[in-house]
Amino acid sequence: MLSFENVGLRYGSSPETLQDINFDIAPRSFQFLTGPSGAGKTTLMRLIIMALKPSRGMIQIFGKDTAQLTKEEITTTRRKIGMIFQDFRLLDHLTLYENVALPLRVQGKDETGYRSEVYELLRWVGLGERFEAPPSVLSGGEKQRAAIARALISRPKLLLADEPTGNVDPTMAGRILRLFVELHKSGTAVVIATHDLSLMDQYEDARRLVLADSRLHIFE
Amino acid sequence: MLGFLRMLFLPAKKRALPPTDGRLTKQSPLVPAETVAGRSLVIVIAIMTLLAGLTAGAATLIVEASSDWRADAATEATIQLLPTKGRDIETDLEKAAEIATKTPGVLRAKIYSQSESEGLLAPWLGQGLDLQELPIPRMIVLTLSQKEHPDLAKLTMALISQFPEASLDDHHIFISRLGDMARAAAFMALVIFILVVVALGIAVASATRAAVATNHEIVDVLHLVGAADDFIASQFRQRFLSLGLRGALIGGGGALAFFALARAMASYWRATAGGNQMEALFGSFALNAGGYFLILILIISVTLLTGFLSQQIVFRHLKQLT
Hints:
The complex is a heterodimer.
Chain A: E1 2-9, E2 18-25, E3 30-34, H1 41-48, E4 56-61, E5 64-65, H2 71-78, E6 81-84, H3 96-105, H4 111-124, H5 140-152, E7 158-162, H6 170-185, E8 189-193, H7 197-201, E9 207-212, E10 215-219
Parallel strand pairs in A: 3-8, 3-9, 6-7, 7-8
Antiparallel strand pairs in A: 1-2, 1-4, 4-5, 9-10
Helix pairs in contact in A: 3-4, 3-5
Chain B: H1 2-9, H2 36-74, E1 76-81, H3 89-102, E2 106-111, H4 114-125, E3 138-144, H5 152-162, E4 167-169, H6 172-214, H7 216-224, H8 229-269, H9 273-282, H10 289-321
Antiparallel strand pairs in B: 1-3, 1-4, 2-3
């Protein structure tokens, strides 16, 4: 599904932020991406979603070299990936419902076709009563759950979650993790970037990708 | 996929159907509509459209008035006879008028009397002068058919053969100058119109770039959730179409109101001496249906131009991002 071969990334003439990154992500797999703050977890996520281009090496996603993808193919590929951003990146001028429905709206789908699904998903993440609220009035935890709902609404084949439990209490963090595990079991490949060791301990079957000193170490 | 979520987050008894009162169907624009820059752009578009509308309307008035003058002048010609010693000018006038009316295409011939001829000179020479001793030329005004053009060269030859001092003026120099003036006015209006449109384009381009920069975060999120460039560009186009329509309606509406008001005031003042002068120059100062239609076309064009320009600029910006 996803493979990195000798990928390196540097900003300008600075030393490489990421060096010789080699790993694969199989379909229906589950992995934690961890490492100290500033190790490059978010950068690696941004490379996967093609928001950044590698300085060297090759990234293949869904069987295609990302360097060869046209703009249209990048768009199509992104629609197969659900991304939960560390800073949520909800749009403040839209309601919660509109934020969650955004991935379907940008695909030009008819609103009547997905309305009930978005509404149900909002209820399932505990935000059913707040569908008309703008993100600015939500708590950190509520924003987190809205961001998760937005990433899930288009039923992605690959889910990338950047510190998805960073703004919620341990109980909610456990529920969110269980949600990701269920997603994984239903066929979605999941990558969770976190430095929360207690979270990783709750699911010991997961593969661990550890970023340290600009390099990636894999623990199966 | 969603079954497990139900189990995790919500007891089954609390599940409910989505609201059906339409609250969810009203979707907000993806590019925020109400911003300070947006309001400024509406004002700029309104002013530009007003200027373009006034220019187009004024050009229409001038061209129309010129066309009326030329039409009037083209249906008239003037025979001029100079008094000659030993000849009876009144008899000559009668004969000349007869020759003229026999010419195919000449409908009528009106002889200006001595007093009428003197009256024509009054604005230059003043009232109360005895002009009997002066060799004042006498005139015959011919009314020409618009359908059947008379052979004026032949008529001139016929007149000169009998009255060597006679001349025939078909007003072609005056008509030609009027045509030149109307064309010059239309050209100036076109130049002003183009300048206004260019300024409008620059204002829209600048506002679009500012909007893209301001909404950079939104563009980024839209990209990452799978929006194509043309989708994002269309969102900006919709926003700018709305701003363009508002500005064009205000400006174009102002121009329409101006000409409607000018028409009402012109008819109110028509009875006064100044009103008569204005009417002689500009007709009734009433924009015809074509003029109003031109301004309506302008409103639609400005709206479409604003939308089109913004979409192209956003599209180019997104391409550069690649």
